[in-house]
Design brief:
Strand content: 35-45%
Structural class: alpha+beta
Helix content: 10-25%
Distance between the termini: 70 Å
Number of strands: 7
Shape: elongated
Largest sheet: 7 strands, mixed
Radius of gyration: 23 Å
Length: about 110
């Protein structure tokens, strides 16, 4: 009987420990801006800034474009130079919350 009680107590303790993972705090790393009209400024080395407004009267949010920034058209990665063609057109800018840098720019044709 004592052996069964110890096993039950151990199983209960393990179940409680396993369930604490559900209490973990989710810390967001990235955020997105759905721009109605993209503003792009790129140098020859493909660095610069990208910005956009969520609505025509909303404030412009700008983000640095670095060598790590990626561009996706129709969910397919494309050369960052294609970003210049998106100036004034809708796109989604995904940026790192801590650094403020644009990590990905997405659009659908």
């Amino acid at each position: 009987m004592r052996h069964a009680v110890i096993k039950y107590a151990l199983a209960t303790a393990l179940a409680l420990v396993a369930s604490t993972a559900g209490w973990a705090t989710i810390i967001p790393v990235e955020e997105a801006v759905e721009a109605v009209a993209l503003e792009v400024s790129l140098n020859e080395n493909l660095t610069g800034t990208v910005g956009g407004r969520s609505c025509q009267s909303c404030d412009l949010k700008e983000f640095p474009v670095t060598g790590a920034t990626q561009a996706y058209e129709n969910n397919v990665r494309v050369d960052l130079r294609k970003l210049i063609d998106r100036h004034g057109k809708p796109a989604t800018i995904i940026y790192n919350i801590r650094s403020g840098e644009a990590t990905r720019i997405l659009w659908i044709r």
